[in-house]
Amino acid sequence: METLQKPLPTDPGRDVRRAWWSLALYVPSFVLAFVVGEGLMSAFGYESGEDVPVWVYAAAGMPACLVFALPLLVTVPLSRHAARAGRRDAWMPVWIGSFVAGIFLLQNLASLALTLLVD
């Protein structure tokens, strides 16, 4: 038996606006990423100013980067829905959110590289 589902009428402009507003989630995700990174570092027995082995830095830094990128889980579906409805500007919030998350990742990798060069 086949059932037909009638799609709910939605406004693609609303989805684009929500996608833009979802980028504001980077503020709490930054705080949460900091808590996760510092929490994992202290769980391994290291403090912020100490010499930290690379594996500890990676084990604390990568989950923090993933937590920081969580707002994309909201932005991407909203943008996809608006793009399917014909909005050509729908992917711009995803590009900007990805750029912000990439800068955060590059900043953490640069910090690791500087730590390795100084030691």
UniProtKB/TrEMBL annotation:
Keyword Transmembrane part of the UniProt annotation: yes
Segments traversing the membrane: 20-42, 54-78, 90-118
Keyword terms of this UniProt record: Membrane, Transmembrane, Transmembrane helix
Stated name of the protein: Uncharacterized protein
Species assigned in the record: Nocardioides taihuensis
